[in-house]
Amino acid sequence: MRILGIDYGERRIGLAISDELGIAAHGLPTLRNTAEADVLEALRRLIEERGVEEIVVGLPRNMDGSLGPQANQAMRFAETLKPLGRKVHLLDERLTTERARRTLSDAGISRDEQRRRVDRMAAQFILQAHLDSSRRLKSEEA
To answer: pTM of the entire structure?
Structure first.
Protein backbone atom coordinates (compact mmCIF):
# COMPACT_ATOMS: atom_id res chain seq x y z
CA MET A 1 0.00 0.00 0.00
CA ARG A 2 1.50 3.33 -1.04
CA ILE A 3 0.96 6.47 0.99
CA LEU A 4 1.49 10.04 -0.20
CA GLY A 5 3.05 12.57 2.17
CA ILE A 6 2.40 16.28 1.68
CA ASP A 7 4.11 19.34 3.11
CA TYR A 8 1.63 22.07 2.19
CA GLY A 9 2.91 25.60 1.66
CA GLU A 10 1.51 28.78 0.15
CA ARG A 11 3.99 28.69 -2.77
CA ARG A 12 5.19 25.09 -2.93
CA ILE A 13 3.84 21.68 -1.99
CA GLY A 14 6.44 19.12 -0.98
CA LEU A 15 5.64 15.52 -1.87
CA ALA A 16 6.89 12.11 -0.80
CA ILE A 17 5.67 8.57 -1.41
CA SER A 18 6.11 5.38 0.53
CA ASP A 19 7.48 2.18 -0.89
CA GLU A 20 4.93 -0.60 -1.42
CA LEU A 21 5.68 -2.15 1.97
CA GLY A 22 5.09 1.12 3.82
CA ILE A 23 8.61 1.15 5.29
CA ALA A 24 10.42 4.08 3.69
CA ALA A 25 9.46 7.52 2.38
CA HIS A 26 10.95 8.74 -0.91
CA GLY A 27 10.85 12.32 -2.15
CA LEU A 28 8.96 13.35 -5.27
CA PRO A 29 9.23 16.56 -7.30
CA THR A 30 7.72 19.56 -5.55
CA LEU A 31 4.52 21.09 -6.93
CA ARG A 32 4.11 24.82 -7.39
CA ASN A 33 1.02 25.89 -5.48
CA THR A 34 -0.88 27.58 -8.27
CA ALA A 35 -4.59 27.28 -8.94
CA GLU A 36 -6.32 24.78 -6.65
CA ALA A 37 -7.85 22.91 -9.60
CA ASP A 38 -4.39 22.45 -11.18
CA VAL A 39 -2.91 21.17 -7.92
CA LEU A 40 -5.78 18.73 -7.40
CA GLU A 41 -5.47 17.46 -10.98
CA ALA A 42 -1.72 16.91 -10.58
CA LEU A 43 -2.32 15.03 -7.33
CA ARG A 44 -5.15 12.98 -8.87
CA ARG A 45 -2.80 11.87 -11.68
CA LEU A 46 -0.03 11.05 -9.21
CA ILE A 47 -2.40 9.06 -7.01
CA GLU A 48 -3.65 7.02 -9.96
CA GLU A 49 -0.21 6.46 -11.52
CA ARG A 50 1.43 5.42 -8.24
CA GLY A 51 -1.47 3.49 -6.68
CA VAL A 52 -1.72 5.74 -3.62
CA GLU A 53 -4.27 4.54 -1.08
CA GLU A 54 -3.83 7.10 1.71
CA ILE A 55 -2.59 10.68 2.08
CA VAL A 56 -0.79 12.30 5.02
CA VAL A 57 -0.77 16.10 5.21
CA GLY A 58 1.57 17.84 7.63
CA LEU A 59 -0.18 19.99 10.23
CA PRO A 60 2.18 22.82 11.27
CA ARG A 61 1.17 23.41 14.89
CA ASN A 62 2.69 26.19 16.93
CA MET A 63 5.27 25.14 19.51
CA ASP A 64 2.61 25.33 22.25
CA GLY A 65 0.43 22.91 20.26
CA SER A 66 -2.10 25.53 19.18
CA LEU A 67 -3.28 25.99 15.63
CA GLY A 68 -2.21 29.11 13.77
CA PRO A 69 -2.90 30.44 10.27
CA GLN A 70 -0.59 27.92 8.54
CA ALA A 71 -2.26 25.00 10.32
CA ASN A 72 -5.66 26.32 9.28
CA GLN A 73 -4.47 26.48 5.65
CA ALA A 74 -3.17 22.90 5.86
CA MET A 75 -6.50 21.68 7.29
CA ARG A 76 -8.42 23.47 4.54
CA PHE A 77 -6.13 21.90 1.95
CA ALA A 78 -6.65 18.45 3.49
CA GLU A 79 -10.41 18.96 3.11
CA THR A 80 -9.99 19.76 -0.60
CA LEU A 81 -8.30 16.36 -1.04
CA LYS A 82 -11.30 14.34 0.14
CA PRO A 83 -12.95 14.22 -3.33
CA LEU A 84 -9.87 12.29 -4.50
CA GLY A 85 -11.40 9.32 -2.68
CA ARG A 86 -8.49 8.49 -0.37
CA LYS A 87 -8.27 8.54 3.40
CA VAL A 88 -6.57 11.77 4.48
CA HIS A 89 -4.60 12.00 7.75
CA LEU A 90 -3.22 15.12 9.41
CA LEU A 91 0.11 14.70 11.22
CA ASP A 92 1.76 17.16 13.59
CA GLU A 93 4.79 18.40 11.68
CA ARG A 94 6.37 20.90 14.04
CA LEU A 95 9.88 21.81 12.91
CA THR A 96 10.06 19.46 9.90
CA THR A 97 10.98 22.28 7.52
CA GLU A 98 13.65 23.52 9.92
CA ARG A 99 14.94 19.95 10.33
CA ALA A 100 15.07 19.59 6.53
CA ARG A 101 16.99 22.88 6.19
CA ARG A 102 19.47 21.84 8.87
CA THR A 103 19.97 18.40 7.29
CA LEU A 104 20.62 19.92 3.86
CA SER A 105 22.93 22.56 5.30
CA ASP A 106 24.89 19.97 7.28
CA ALA A 107 25.30 17.99 4.05
CA GLY A 108 26.95 21.02 2.44
CA ILE A 109 24.12 21.69 0.00
CA SER A 110 24.12 25.23 -1.43
CA ARG A 111 21.36 27.62 -0.36
CA ASP A 112 19.86 27.64 -3.87
CA GLU A 113 19.72 23.84 -3.91
CA GLN A 114 18.35 23.81 -0.36
CA ARG A 115 15.41 25.96 -1.52
CA ARG A 116 14.68 23.43 -4.26
CA ARG A 117 14.87 20.41 -1.93
CA VAL A 118 13.56 21.57 1.45
CA ASP A 119 9.83 21.00 0.79
CA ARG A 120 10.44 17.53 -0.62
CA MET A 121 12.57 16.58 2.38
CA ALA A 122 10.00 17.98 4.83
CA ALA A 123 7.34 15.83 3.11
CA GLN A 124 9.64 12.81 3.50
CA PHE A 125 10.01 13.52 7.23
CA ILE A 126 6.23 13.88 7.62
CA LEU A 127 5.53 10.65 5.77
CA GLN A 128 8.32 8.72 7.52
CA ALA A 129 6.94 9.76 10.92
CA HIS A 130 3.52 8.45 9.86
CA LEU A 131 4.97 5.16 8.57
CA ASP A 132 7.00 4.64 11.75
CA SER A 133 4.01 5.41 13.96
CA SER A 134 1.76 3.05 11.99
CA ARG A 135 4.33 0.25 12.26
CA ARG A 136 4.63 0.76 16.03
CA LEU A 137 0.84 0.63 16.45
CA LYS A 138 0.63 -2.59 14.42
CA SER A 139 3.38 -4.26 16.45
CA GLU A 140 1.68 -3.24 19.72
CA GLU A 141 -1.61 -4.73 18.50
CA ALA A 142 0.04 -8.04 17.62
So the answer is: 0.89
